[in-house]
TrEMBL record:
Comp. bias (Acidic residues): 1-10
Cellular component terms per the entry's GO annotation: kinetochore
Basic and acidic residues compositional bias, start-end: 36-58, 91-121, 147-186, 202-213
Species the sequence originates in: Clathrospora elynae
Residues in G-patch domain copies: 68-114
Protein name, as recorded: G-patch-domain-containing protein
Lineage: Eukaryota, Fungi, Dikarya, Ascomycota, Pezizomycotina
UniProt xrefs under InterPro entries: DUF4187 (IPR025239), G_patch_dom (IPR000467), GPATCH11 (IPR039249)
Top-rank taxon, per record: Eukaryota
Gene Ontology terms, MF aspect: nucleic acid binding
Length: 310
């Protein structure tokens, strides 16, 4: 037999007349409650908790509209102000109160702005110094690269001058007109005249050192030839009968050479360019290929400079 829809569902029944808790708290409950409240009041709140409560109270106050029972609201209502309207005759004023920035330190008014200004100046100074240091570092690296480049160009210049001089001497021997060993410096091509002048200076220095060592022997008295006059004895005793050894001082290397001075005054890269051009035009020779080409087009050579051969 099916149950009727009107039958009660005993599983979901609610007894409204069920007994409830005591209407009044007992003495034990009251004592426990008072003990908890006393402990809560006696506990010292931390600074963070006090600041949090003050912030919450301030935000709640700012979020609460001015009640109509407020005396100030009543005065503004007489001039037509309504809740939610903006201030001013043209209603262009503020609708929300000005935010409050609580000052929680003991510094004077304006000190925070001064700190911000100093901090901003320090930041700008640090940024300026960092940029300057970066620029100086870049300049220093550029100077190092330039010095390295000039040093490499100096080595290439010396190699190019040696090669040009060798090819010139080789051509002169093939023609049967070799260059004299004591050729004046001004008659040597200015492109490699520096090498010839350096060799002449080294030769002169060696000769002077040799003459300086031999000069000690020249000061010692020696026997004069028997057929000399009697006056020679006094010359011998004084060491004045010997010929002087310092002949290199009379034939010193020519100091004045305006053409060479002008050439040496040029930057090393420009001097190198002149010598390389001479080698290519005169002998069809590339210093970096190390090869003398058969024709003027120098087919196969990538270029004149070291960068072209890299």
């Amino acid at each position: 037999m099916a149950q009727s829809d009107e039958e009660d569902d005993y599983m979901n029944m609610v007894f409204e007349d069920a007994p409830k808790g005591p209407k009044y708290e007992t003495s034990l409950q009251r004592a426990a409650r008072r003990r908890k409240e006393g402990e809560a009041k006696a506990r010292q709140k931390t600074k963070a908790e006090r600041e949090e409560e003050a912030e919450a109270a301030r935000e709640a106050s700012l979020a609460t509209a001015l009640p109509e029972t407020n005396k100030g609201f009543k005065m503004m209502a007489k001039f037509g102000f309504k809740q939610g309207d903006a201030l001013g005759k043209s209603e262009s004023g503020r609708k929300e109160p000005i935010r409050v920035n609580v000052k929680d330190d003991r510094g004077g008014i304006g000190l925070e702005s001064e700190k911000k200004r100093k901090f901003r100046e320090q930041f700008e100074e640090a940024d300026r110094l960092a940029k300057r240091s970066k620029e100086e570092e870049g300049d220093y690296l550029e100077v190092l690269r330039q010095e390295q480049k000039e040093k490499m160009a100096g080595r290439d210049l010396n190699d190019a001058q040696r090669t040009a001089e060798r090819l010139f001497d080789k051509e002169a021997e093939e023609k049967g007109t070799p260059e004299p060993s004591e050729k004046p410096l001004k008659d040597i091509n200015v492109l490699w005249r520096t090498r010839a002048r350096r060799r002449a200076e080294i030769k002169r220095d060696k000769q002077q050192r040799r003459e300086l060592n031999d000069s000690i022997a020249s000061r010692l008295p020696t026997l004069a030839p028997e057929d000399d006059d009697d006056d020679d004895d006094s010359k011998v005793a004084q060491g004045q009968d010997l010929a002087p050894f310092y002949t290199t001082l009379e034939n010193d290397v020519e100091d004045e050479d305006p053409e060479l001075e002008d050439f040496e005054a040029l930057p090393v890269t420009e001097r190198l360019h002149k010598v390389l051009t001479y080698l290519r035009d005169k002998y069809r020779y590339c210093l970096y290929c190390g090869h003398e080409f058969p024709d003027a087009e120098m087919e196969g050579c990538p270029g004149m400079t070291q960068e072209d051969h890299d």
